[in-house]
Amino acid sequence: MNKTRQDILLDSVLGAIGHTPLIEISRFTKGLDGRILAKLEYLNPGFSKKDRNALQMIEEAEADGRLKPGQTVVELTSGNTGTGLSIVCGVKGYPFVAVMSKGNSMERARMMKALGAEVVLVDQLPDSTPGKVSGGDLALVEEAARRITGERHAFRADQFHLEGSTRAHFLHTGPEIIQQTGGRFDAYCDFIGTGSSFNGCARAFKDYRADIRCFVVEPTGAAAFKGEAVTNPNHRIQGGGYSMTDLPLIDKNLIDGYLQVTDEEAMLTARRLAKEEGIFAGFSSGANVAAAVQLLKTTCRGKTVVVLLSDSGLKYLSTDLWTE
Questions:
Q1: For residues 209-219, average pLDDT
Q2: For the segment 235-284, what is each residue's pLDDT rounded down to a tens digit?
Q3: Topology (CATH) of 50-156
Q4: Which are the catalytic amino acids?
Q5: CB burial class (10 A; 0-12, 13-18, 19+) of residue 152?
Q6: Max CA separation in the chain (angstroms)
């Protein structure tokens, strides 16, 4: 019998990263022609898919000597990569500084602090709205992250540029999905922030079977990567949709199409997942499932679509995603 991580004693929490369950959300899709399979990435130790990125980037930097023993690690974050890095750096003994916009939900800042990170919160632009992080807000966070990296002679765990960020999903997330489904699925869609999970999974899927269709998901009114004019930079879907046209980790040859989801669609879908499937996930998870529904109603009618449920709804309790 093949042993899973549940069958063995792990030497640290890092061994609990990955190998998340894949489930069919059959109650949610009742009445639709097709299936949605959802990978529960919020069951990682830091409650998001970004634990994978954090572990891969740090271990690759250790292996090639870019990260020295005891060196400080710095990264900008909306909260999820920062949480993953807080866990990985804490276990491995590296000081970690998370640099985050004040527009992101405060649950994540508190969680990172609890995990031992130093959290630097960056003011938003004057015309930005709390809870809605724009590309301009992220640029301010990037500026602060670069400054702190230089001041502290730190290693920058740059999730937007380091290949380890996407390799985590090429080597692990994608192959896990292929194994869990026996390769029997037709499409994949993913809401993009850095684009690392889209690119890594899509490359793994295309290598396995070239006819698996892979779709990028962006917020309605902020589909800059598709090439559209940005009319809604302050959308409410946290964790991505930063109106960035240059995402170097994404190979555009892997993209079969582009989808857009409104704030309302993402939020209502996340709420339905909680009530109908017992899945307590965040904004981008709602966006991914809403996009998958679009596919089942159009070009993927009768097919099977795979999505990632990127993080936990616990990270948004202070936002209007969840009503009193």
A1: 98
A2: 999 889 988 999 999 999 999 999 999 999 999 999 999 999 999 999 99
A3: Rossmann fold (3.40.50)
A4: 50, 284
A5: middle
A6: 59
- Give me the DSSP letters along 91-115: HHT--EEEEEETTS-HHHHHHHHHT
Question: What whole-number distance in Å separates Cα of residue 116 and Cα of residue 238?
Answer: 23
- Over residues 174-210, the pLDDT tens digits come to 999 999 999 999 999 999 999 999 999 999 999 999 9
Backbone angles phi, psi at 312, to 5 degrees: -90, 145
CB atoms within 10 A of CB 234: 22
Q: Domain spans of the chain?
A: 5-44+163-316, 50-156
Q: Assign residue 243 a region: left if phi > 0, alpha if psi is -120 to 50, beta otherwise? A: left
Q: What is the DSSP letter of 41?
A: G
What is the pLDDT, as a whole number, of residue 1?
42
- CA 273 from centre of chain: 18
pTM above 0.85, yes or no: yes
CATH topology of domain 5-44+163-316: Rossmann fold (3.40.50)
